[in-house]
Inverse folding.
């Protein structure tokens, strides 16, 4: 499967990576080379793979605190805090989540 | 949008609605960490490495969240799966600290239920567990959005219905029934106002008789059940108008603007989102022992439908009374406790529906906090039944009990509200009223029997409600009757 | 105990300064705070690691010392909580001596991809120490510390251990807590230990292993005394020699050292048996789909909002993009791109889902071999010894360094590397692979081999 420059830009957008044109072009070649090596997988017959047993499953925890404490409050390590809130540039579209 | 526009479209098009309801579970701590999930703390104080998504932090699931989720799923008749899998839903937003939400995708906790709502049963596609995001506040600081992660990680269940609803009223009925069931099984505060219940609607339209589904849009940002209903009607009209004009409905997210009473598209750069779901590697599958689910099913409290049926059978109450009394499980509990103490279901029902709910509505408080508890109400009702106080006086006594508590018998004695049936006392008051209202008295004597209420009412007032109205009527008839 | 602990810290500091000096300075440590280390030495409790300065890889959360994962995006970040493994080290009396350099976010096999410069191999400073835990391997190899913590995702402890001539252990997945280990690929990551000798590694693993309620993937199984295996007899032990790890083009002297090691095991009473793990060659393609996919998700939290680097851009999205494009290096960017792609709509089934299914085949290979009467496997750790710094520029060629190690990560089985000789003065590592949770048996063979080799291990 060939990755195009449009694909690279789209993927970089999903990952919020902000690529320069130069880097984007370079990545087209790099990704295609790497993915080329992966093609071997498509020819593998996986029908005989043992199914993973769920076993006992995940351990749960009791509904009690306290949580693992922080040794300093967020304002001591966050880039931008005011009145206890983390600040980010105001969202252009803010009516729903997932719009940034 | 005018009613006639809507009606005109409704003649030709059918609305198809499914609802996705997010419900906050009332656990003490968050879904994946032991931070308090309580509301109202100063910003970013109920946080820890896990819900702040610090490097190296890991999720560990809250057992009580699982229990409440299973309870909710069973209450709406779902099949709870012994094995379910958590998945990451990946997207960037500042109140989603990990850059993904831990949710469930293709192996959810429960599937295949149903909820009876009025005349229709709505299918439930699935119930799955997930975590809440934090809060983004856009208008506190100019030019910036403020993020509070206290809510990030609070456990939610998402209840997805089948697209079985055919009108806004259906949707409203479903939501009210769902809220009631969830209140009954005590898994959430289910308050849209407080944000513990949130609704997203999926709506499409099709010509009547068509089997194929139209393209659906997602409608968000409704703050109340009536808002949901109005938003659905607005979007219905928009889609119908679009189709009538030869256009095609695009799959998109619409936002309800309650103030303007309209839906408009959410501005979004990307079309549909690519969440890149994959199984959450930090959490092995959730495996529920068979007897875990069985125990929760066995311990389910009585559900609304069963309670309603029982009230009809055991208390011989009418459908309307039963609906009102069972609307809230706590009110129903209160009512039953009163009946147990007092014995007369009808009297108890009248007083709970009338005076108690009336007082609660006026004060805005919850029946759990109400000053007059069933034992005290029962004592008051006993006084009425035994003829110690009149109905009118009882209402006064009730008012005093609501305001400042106290035992009804003591209040009756103290306030002089014990029913007076002594003919001398009654006669004196009656004569005073007749003297003060000669015109009404004369008209009554002339035959206007309906003035009896006015005259007796005046005596009741004079006696502060303690006069026995039945005896008064007899005395009045004796003095002025024919 | 505190005087001895102080002296140990002082010795570590002297040696660290020594090997860092000059043009050929090894650049082992990304962060050091000797004053804090002395304070910790004064207050450290008595315990199995009392008096031991331990170097900790820069992707494991420590209080006071930064945790930057070899990246600009976390420059200066001091974690407000500490990893479980570090808490356990301290409780055992150890002193955290420095955070070691690493490939950025553990993505690499050479420690050349750090924002804080490459680390040099103490045995040959013009060569790489391996990666991604190159700094920790070098700290032990250079004699700064006897014990160091690293992390494994595809071989990042064993491979540098082999290249630097020290012992490196990857425990069974779930044996050691990951709480506080900055996640790269969650279904593969494990904290690993380096030791100057097998006993050091056994001691360290015993301290950090065990269930942690903060890690839902950590397993509730008792932790044996791994040092007790020191004099176990190998009589009756069946050691498998998987043919796929001894390809025809294997460097002949690496092969010779492995054969010598197998001879010694045989002489100590073990039976050597030829076996096959037929899906071995698929490990690299599987690993390079699964690991980047999980990484692309794990690294989404580095967004400039709550900690770490923040750069301004056009609005919120601009902030995300500026922060991440400037904060992440080229290899990390490449893997995030790869990972995002293989999870994206339309490609998930063909890539990620398929890779996980093939992963099961790799796991099944081990299950089958271990169920056939074979107790352990022995293989070369890496196909070749340390390569020169800057020699490998092709990403996929670099990935092939993991060819003998990534299988164990994919299957979750424990594995360890120990020095078994030198080629042109460069260390060569031999690897044991054991069934799930059978580290004790693995150590027993490693102890015996170490004893039998003696000084030959470094020749």
């Amino acid at each position: 499967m060939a990755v195009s420059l449009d694909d690279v830009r789209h993927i970089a957008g999903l990952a919020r990576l902000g690529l320069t044109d130069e880097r984007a072009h370079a990545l087209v070649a790099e990704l295609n080379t790497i993915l080329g090596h992966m093609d071997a997988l498509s020819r593998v017959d996986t029908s005989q793979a043992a199914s993973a047993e769920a076993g006992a499953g995940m351990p749960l925890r009791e509904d009690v605190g306290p949580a693992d404490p922080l040794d300093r409050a967020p304002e001591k390590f966050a880039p931008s805090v005011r009145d206890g809130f983390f600040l980010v540039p105001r969202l252009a579209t803010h009516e729903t989540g997932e719009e940034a | 949008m005018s009613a006639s526009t809507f009606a005109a479209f409704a003649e030709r098009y059918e609305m198809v609605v499914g609802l996705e309801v997010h419900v906050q579970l009332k656990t003490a701590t968050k879904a994946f960490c032991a931070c308090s999930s309580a509301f109202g703390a100063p910003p970013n104080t109920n946080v820890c490495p896990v819900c702040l998504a610090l490097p190296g932090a890991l999720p560990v699931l809250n057992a009580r969240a699982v229990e409440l989720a299973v309870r909710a799923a069973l209450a709406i008749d779902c099949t709870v799966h012994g094995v379910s899998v958590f998945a990451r839903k990946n997207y960037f937003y500042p109140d989603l600290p990990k850059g993904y939400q831990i949710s469930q995708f293709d192996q959810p906790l429960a599937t295949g239920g149903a909820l009876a709502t009025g005349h229709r049963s709505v299918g439930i596609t699935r119930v799955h567990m997930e975590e809440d995001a934090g809060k983004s506040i856009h208008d506190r600081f100019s030019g910036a959005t403020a993020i509070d992660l206290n809510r990030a990680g609070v456990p939610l269940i998402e209840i997805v219905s089948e697209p079985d609803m055919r009108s806004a009223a259906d949707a409203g009925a479903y939501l009210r029934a769902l809220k009631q069931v969830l209140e009954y099984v005590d898994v959430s505060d289910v308050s849209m106002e407080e944000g513990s219940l949130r609704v997203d609607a999926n709506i499409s339209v099709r010509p009547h008789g068509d089997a194929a589904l139209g393209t659906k849009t997602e409608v968000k940002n409704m703050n109340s059940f009536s808002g949901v209903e109005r938003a659905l009607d607005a979007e219905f009209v928009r889609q119908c108008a679009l189709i009538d004009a030869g256009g095609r409905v695009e799959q998109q997210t619409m936002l309800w603007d309650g103030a303007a009473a309209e839906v408009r598209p959410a501005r979004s750069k990307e079309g549909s989102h690519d969440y890149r779901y994959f199984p959450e590697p930090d959490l092995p599958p959730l495996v529920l022992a068979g007897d875990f689910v069985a125990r929760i099913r066995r311990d389910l409290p009585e559900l609304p439908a069963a309670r309603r049926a029982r009230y009809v059978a055991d208390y011989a109450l009418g459908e309307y009374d039963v609906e009102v009394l069972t609307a809230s499980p706590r009110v129903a509990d209160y009512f039953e406790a009163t009946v147990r103490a007092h014995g007369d279901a009808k009297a108890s029902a009248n007083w709970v529906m009338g005076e108690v709910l009336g007082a609660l509505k006026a004060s805005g408080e919850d029946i759990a906090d109400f000053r007059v508890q069933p034992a005290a109400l029962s004592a008051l009702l006993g006084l009425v039944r035994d003829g110690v106080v009149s109905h009118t006086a009882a209402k006064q006594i009730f008012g005093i009990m609501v305001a400042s508590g106290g035992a009804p018998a003591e209040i009756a004695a103290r306030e002089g509200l014990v029913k007076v049936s002594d003919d001398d006392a009654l006669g004196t008051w009656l004569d005073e009223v007749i003297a003060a209202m000669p015109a009404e008295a004369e008209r009554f004597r002339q035959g206007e029997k309906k003035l009896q209420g006015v005259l007796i009412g005046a005596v009741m007032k004079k006696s502060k409600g303690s006069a026995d109205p039945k005896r008064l009527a007899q005395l009045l008839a004796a003095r002025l009757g024919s | 105990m505190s005087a001895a602990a102080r002296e140990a810290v002082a010795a570590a500091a002297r040696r660290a300064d020594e090997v860092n000096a000059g043009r050929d300075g090894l650049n082992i440590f990304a962060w050091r705070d000797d004053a804090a280390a002395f304070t910790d030495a004064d207050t450290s409790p008595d315990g199995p690691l009392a008096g031991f300065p331990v170097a900790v890889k820069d992707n494991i959360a420590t209080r006071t010392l930064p945790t930057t994962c070899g990246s600009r995006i976390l420059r200066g970040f001091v974690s407000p909580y500490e990893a479980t493994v570090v808490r356990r080290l301290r409780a055992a009396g150890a002193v955290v001596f420095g955070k070691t350099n690493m490939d950025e976010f553990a993505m690499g096999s050479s420690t050349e991809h750090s924002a804080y410069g490459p680390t040099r191999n103490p045995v040959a400073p013009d060569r790489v120490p391996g990666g991604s835990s190159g700094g920790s391997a070098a700290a032990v190899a250079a004699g700064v510390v006897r014990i160091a913590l690293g992390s494994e995702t595809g071989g990042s402890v064993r491979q540098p251990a082999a290249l630097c001539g020290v012992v490196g252990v990857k425990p069974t997945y779930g044996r050691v807590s990951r709480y506080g280990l900055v996640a790269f690929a969650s279904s593969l990551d494990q904290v690993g230990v380096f030791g100057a000798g097998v006993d050091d590694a056994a001691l360290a693993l015993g301290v950090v292993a065990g269930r942690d309620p903060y890690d839902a993937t950590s397993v509730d199984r008792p932790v044996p005394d791994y040092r007790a295996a020191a004099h176990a007899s190998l009589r009756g032990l069946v050691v498998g020699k998987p043919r796929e790890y001894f390809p025809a083009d294997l460097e002949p002297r690496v092969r010779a050292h492995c054969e010598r090691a197998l001879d010694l095991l045989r002489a100590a009473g073990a039976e050597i048996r030829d076996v096959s793990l037929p899906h071995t060659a698929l490990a690299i393609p599987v690993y390079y789909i699964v690991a980047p996919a999980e990484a692309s998700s794990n690294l989404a939290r580095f967004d400039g909002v709550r900690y770490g680097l923040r750069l301004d851009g056009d609005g919120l999205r601009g902030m995300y993009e500026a922060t991440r494009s400037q904060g992440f290096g080229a290899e990390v960017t490449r893997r995030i791109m790869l990972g995002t792609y293989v999870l994206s709509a339309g490609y998930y089934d063909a890539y990620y889902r398929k890779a996980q299914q093939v992963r099961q085949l790799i796991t099944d290979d081990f299950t089958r071999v271990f169920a056939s009467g074979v107790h352990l496997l022995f293989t070369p750790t890496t196909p070749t010894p340390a390569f020169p710094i800057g020699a490998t520029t092709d990403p996929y060629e670099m990935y092939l360094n993991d060819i003998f190690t990534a299988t164990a990560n994919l299957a979750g089985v424990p594995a360890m590397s120990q020095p078994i000789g030198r080629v042109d003065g460069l260390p060569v590592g031999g690897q044991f692979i054991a069934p799930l949770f059978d580290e004790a048996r693995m150590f027993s063979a490693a102890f015996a081999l170490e004893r039998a080799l003696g000084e030959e291990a470094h020749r």
User: Anything to note?
Assistant: The longest strand of chain C covers residues 415-423. DSSP finds 14 helices and eleven strands in chain C. The radius of gyration of chain C is 21 Å. Residues 127 and 388 of chain C are 4 Å apart (CA to CA).
